[in-house]
Write a structure and sequence with these properties.
It contains 16 helices and twelve strands. It is α/β, with parallel strands linked by helices. Helix 3 crosses helix 5 and helix 14 crosses helix 15.
Length: 389
């Protein structure tokens, strides 16, 4: 039998994510090469959905398959995961889903596992949706690590934690930055919601991310430090003489190739940067990424908080900013340990932002901004603007 091209590509992505620790977006690029636009879109949907729902899927496969996943050959495990996702969250024909799962195992030369795969897929077709529906609302049903759920319950309460989980299981809005009107305008200047991305006219970028760059308030004639610059979306929105610092050589090179004329890229660790006297700084720090889980399906399984590193980067940028200058600290996560706690530990005085952007004021600390995916239909970002002393 011929396996549907989109399923074959999705199988490869899921296999690489869980067996090789690959990033889903990078694995997808090679897997969909040569496919038409429709099959590319379907492959992405199936692969990303399977990775995102992996905890729930694994529970169902083990319950109905009556065998621990860790004891299955990787191709069998991957085929069952991919098949379960389609049975649970798509309207694709069940017979095609079951048949292709079996053929994927056969194509992987696991002939002895074909009868088992067929039997488990048929059980999944009959009972998986009901099993998922019977689960109580929480991290197992919505497919999140317990620690993420527990963090959100602590910070926002149980009801909001569930809303955040549901929101970040849904497809994110397609938001872009553009110099001219495209699609539907938003309340962030330059940010639009579109149905398709035309790279000649726009750059994919959530409006929450664009908001962080706008809060910097950089002006022509100023010296600006971008302390953690790559991939460079915010860098391109900064005015003035921008020094964009990036520690990873490959990312620094890629940023330098596309940087606008006002940006100088420096491959360095900002904690060791031999420069000072900047008027403003942006610290878009590495983080657990709990605000962008809808856009990065594998991140929920690899995320970890980085408060110690974030505090070091913030202090390094502050030390290189002239007295009276400002430092914007932004992270794409929803975790007070990486957000307000880092700012508090820095000892830097915050400049109130809630009056400038009241719709995004932090619910508990209105001097900061916090975008929330379930409320704002964008990525989750924490933004603080601090005064250097």
């Amino acid at each position: 039998m011929t396996i549907a091209p989109a399923r074959r590509a999705a199988f490869e992505v899921v296999r690489r994510v869980f067996e090789e620790d690959a990033y889903a977006d990078r694995a997808l690029v090679g897997a969909v090469e040569g496919l038409d636009e429709r099959d590319r879109a379907l492959a992405q949907r199936l692969a990303y959905g399977t990775v995102q729902r992996a905890r729930t899927i694994d529970h169902g496969v083990e319950a109905l398959g009556k065998r621990p996943l860790r004891k299955l050959d990787p191709p069998v495990r991957t085929a069952l995961r991919l098949g379960a996702y389609q049975l649970g969250w798509t309207d694709l024909p069940q017979h095609a889903v079951v048949d292709d799962a079996v053929e994927l195992v056969r194509a992987a030369r696991r002939e002895r596992a074909v009868p088992f795969t067929n039997a488990v897929m048929r059980r999944l077709a009959q009972g998986f949706r009901g099993l998922v529906a019977s689960l109580p609302d929480g991290p197992l049903k919505l497919s999140y690590p317990d620690w993420v759920y527990e963090t959100w319950v602590r910070d926002f309460g149980a009801d909001t934690a569930l809303e955040l989980m549901r929101a970040q299981n849904a497809p994110p809005a397609l938001e872009v930055h553009a110099a001219e009107p495209v699609g539907e305008p938003t309340d962030v200047p330059g940010a639009y919601v579109v149905e398709r991305v035309d790279l000649a006219r726009m750059r994919p970028m959530s409006r929450a991310s664009q908001l962080a760059a706008l809060v910097v308030g950089s002006q022509d004639g100023e010296r600006i430090l971008d302390a953690c610059a790559a991939p460079g979306g915010k860098t391109r929105l900064l005015r003035g003489d921008v020094t964009a610092v990036e520690i990873h050589p490959g990312r620094a090179r890629a940023l330098a190739e596309e940087a606008p004329p006002n940006v100088t890229v420096v491959e360095a660790d900002v904690r060791e940067l031999d420069a000072s006297g900047f008027d403003r700084a942006l610290v878009d720090a590495p983080c657990s990424g709990l605000g962008v889980l809808a856009r990065r399906p594998d991140l929920r399984w690899r995320a970890r908080p980085l408060p110690e590193l974030q505090l070091e980067l913030l202090r390094a940028a502050a030390a290189r900013t002239k007295p009276g200058g400002t430092i914007v600290y932004s992270v794409c996560t929803l975790n007070r340990d990486e957000n307000e706690a880092v700012v508090d530990a820095s000892g830097l005085a915050p400049e109130p932002l809630g009056d400038e952007w009241p719709q995004y004021a932090h619910p508990a600390r209105p001097e900061f901004l916090l975008t929330l995916p379930h409320r704002d239909r964008t990525s989750g970002f924490f933004v603080a603007r601090l005064r250097a002393s």
